[in-house]
Amino acid sequence: MTRRRFHQQTAAALLGGVQAARSQAPGQETRDREFFYRPAGAWAADFIPFYSQSRFRLFYLLDWRNKEKFGEGTPWYQISTDDFVHFTEHGEMLPRGGKQDQDLYVFTGSVIEALGRYHIFYTGHNPYFRAQGRPEQGIMHAVSDDLLHWTKIPADTFYAPQAAFEPHDWRDPFVFWNEEAREYWMLTAARLKAGPSRRRGCTALCASRDLRTWQVREPFWAPGLYYTHECPDLFRMGDWWYLVYSTFTERSVTHYRMSRSLKGPWLAPENDTFDGRAFYAAKTASDGRRRFVFGWNPTREESKDYRRWNWGGNLVVHEVVQEPDGSLCVSVPHTVDAAFSTPAPFQFRPGLRDCRIGRDSVRILAPDSFGCAPAGRMPRRCKIEARVQFDEHTRGCGLMLRATSDLESAYYIRLEPGRNRLVFDSWPRAGDVPFMVELERPLPLTPGTPVDLKVFVDGTVCVVYAAGKLAMNTRLYNLPEGDWGVFVNEGAAQFRNLALSTTA
Fold first, then answer.
1. Whether 227 and 99 share a structural domain
2. What angle do CA 121, 234, 277 make, to 5 degrees?
3. pTM of model > 0.85
4. Rounded to an integer, what distance in angstroms lies between the CA atom of residue 94 and that of residue 76?
């Protein structure tokens, strides 16, 4: 997780007038909640997924964003689900410590079943220790027999060897059984002492046979590219190994690398990300048939567009799909897609320029201008679908969201053929920018080749899927309501398979 940015955030009152946190009995299913999960009266960050007993057990860092009322530090909580639509809350799993404890902040780690028990390896973070000449971060251990009741083992805490690593960056342990080496391996986010300051980030490697004592070895991957590699994750799919990590320096995003061997080399695919800026600290888990990646859609300061992104937000889950060349893409989980199954009425009407509205399609011709066709009021929670096919020389086209009746303001999900990308835009914009900075995704676009768009919106959360293989998260704050529709920038496009649906 982004520890540095976390501590730069203020402990301001909850955004948007959120009510104080209310308790919920462990094991009780959530009701009357936002579709994209977050804890009542608080926010979630850094989900740690673990599949067990036919359910995904999602541990996460809970942040009240209200130190005055709830005290300092972050604990681990747990929810479980089998469909990413319905969630059962299990309450607090790892309580935060006090100011004298290593784990005042219980930060990211991993869960493993081994040696007859369940184990959590996590980061203990205490920002007060640095002034005392003590490491801010250490790797810590807890055990359980049922995934619900956990016992911390402070004696197992260990720290970065200071001869080779910086002492205050030693976090996010990911533990797995290495069948070839016949031992447990732990990957951690660390920083080397030598080298350019902004390029010392590495994925450190520790090994153990008993999960109690760990030998720190040469780094698993030290490419000299980033300040740090947060929230490491590792899995195998077919003939390929995949190393997942998040960065917040050159840009805030979750990357992955691929290799035929744990020894590397770790290769970068053409598109090495699962999503964009508004999907962070993502980690994966599989049910044995499918693999999913779990991240969070961050809020923005003051609940306004174009303001700084916050640490933490709502859970978003993508399904991970392997391409023939071994690279990865993502799609909407079929259970999430199916949850939006109630058709909602809509009716297209001419907006600007030449709009040709048919029974089940819309064609817009605007060769040297902007054209659009609104379709009526957009529900606060909904899914919008469209198949977009654009003509040659078209500069942009796609979906508009929450447009005002005079078409002066709207959000835009825009395909840009000339740049082979999908972007998120709004009008009016804040400053001299062509779209919302960092909210762009690479997407090959060819005239005459249809592109399917699916947009899921619930309140301020917006998740876009394109071509069945690309995802982009964002937030919608400044325009809380309005019409949806289709548009073209300087060109022509046909829109088919248009649909609007809501949850039951």
1. yes
2. 95
3. yes
4. 5
